[in-house]
Amino acid sequence: MLSKKTKYGLKALTFLARQESKEPIQIAQISKSENISQKFLESILLSLRKTGILGSKKGKGGGYYLIKEPTDILMTDVIRVLEGPIAMVPCVSLNFYEKCDDCPDEATCCVNKLMIQVRDATLKIFRNTTLKDLCV
Amino acid sequence: MLSKKTKYGLKALTFLARQESKEPIQIAQISKSENISQKFLESILLSLRKTGILGSKKGKGGGYYLIKEPTDILMTDVIRVLEGPIAMVPCVSLNFYEKCDDCPDEATCCVNKLMIQVRDATLKIFRNTTLKDLCV
DNA sequence: TATTAGCCTATCGGAATACTAGGATTAATT
DNA sequence: AATTAATCCTAGTATTCCGATAGGCTAATA
Fold first, then answer.
1. Given CB 3.0 to 4.6 Å as the disulfide criterion, which of B6, B28, B61, B87 pairs with B83?
2. Could you give the residue range(s) of every CATH 1.10.10.10 domain in chain A?
3. What is the pLDDT of residues B117-130, one digit of tens each?
4. With an 8 Å Cβ cutoff, are A124 and B121 in contact?
């Protein structure tokens, strides 16, 4: 299940990508337009800034803005920041790999093989989708 | 993230599918072979029985067994019983649809469109995978 | 210097997850 | 009939995570 954090994050990013000018947009404005709790959104945007997807400006007239062009922002990056691993099981995660403690051997694990397929299919979509594609 | 319930359930089903005879297998045996807490496994197998994927025999010499051939047991059915919705968001779920309360219009929702793609890709895999495929 | 807006940490309630306990029930064996 | 072995079933618990909130701090602008 997709977390609200990810959902809200994607909505906020899309909102920013739809702006014509590149002036900073305030949290309050995004929060109202997209029906998102302002304080919660605040923490989401903060994490997007810390990972280099968003830029921010403090003080009066401040807000958040996209650092890169929407066509250059890949879903793989966004999802990994917001949701964490794309894989459904740590033992098939490319970026967040962890061995299962109950599994003696990954090579013969039925779950492992199935989840690799799912991971690859999902990755294929996220790698081929940019923020621009979400704006349509 | 895949729940342990689903993971254990898949392992147990695969274990049963690998058996040569169709005699009932006891929970204790599966639990030991697959490193799964017996009591937890008990509740998982129970739900698989209630949804018609497994059969059981009570009393001495009892246990669980597959009702259908492994080639006739689809991942779509197993996953839906164990994990619930395959979709990552209720608003794109085929079997567990729910409207989002924060979304005014699904047609223009950026998350919706993306998650439909993911759902379809995942469904395609689960529809083309049977329990037999997991046994290899 | 006053105001605005992001920065940051801490916390909290509720829901879901991952189990666990213990008795009831059923069936085979002795 | 008694014993044993297994599932059935309800309930409960411990822990973790999620979504959200509170409140002060810092930086930038007017």
1. B6
2. 4-66
3. 999 999 999 999 99
4. yes
